[in-house]
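Ex. 9. Protein: Response regulator transcription factor.
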Amino acid sequence: MNRLPTADAPLRVLLAEDQAMLRGALAALLNLEEDIEVVGSVGDGESAWRELQRLAPEILVTDIEMPGLTGLELAQRIQRHGLAVRVVIVTTFARSGFLRRALDAGVAGYLLKDAPVEQLADALRRVQGGGRALDPQLALDAWSEPDPLSDRERQALRLAGEGMSAAEIAGRLHLSHGTVRNYLSEAIGKLGVGNRIEAYRLARQKGWL
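Predicted structure tokens for Response regulator transcription factor:
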């Protein structure tokens, strides 16, 4: 465990992770670093959004899949609102499609959960210093296969994969039934599959959802 003394104030970090045991372990391990302070930890994206505004941490460490608001959606919201916080994603999803979307959302770090905590601590320092911290193999793979889906196609396909009908998706997204059908048809065509369920599975496998 790195214990680098510093005259500066510690790096203030907010954790967003829906698995309570992992969240607690990460907080405990990061707090062992003399130059890092975990100022809060939450279990879902909406809570993370509220705590970001209340606590104003320098770095958000977030998972991707969380209830209500995913880590990627949270990063996109941070980018839209111009919050002065850098985002580091720590996830089990070793999918280049997720990394591409994360980079598009302004994420500064993307690491896998099987990395040692020392690597995460070093990544947080690098990100705070203005750099990036990306899993090297994913960074190489990220540009090999571009994501063909638009944001609306992605939203419609995700809800279809959750079992919603086109009419239900239309109500959720405040779109017309015909528009939703068009989005789903476009996604199916782009992915070269036979139906929306196959499209959902392939997009999930590629990390595009």
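Check your answer against this statement. The first strand starts at residue 11 and ends at 16.
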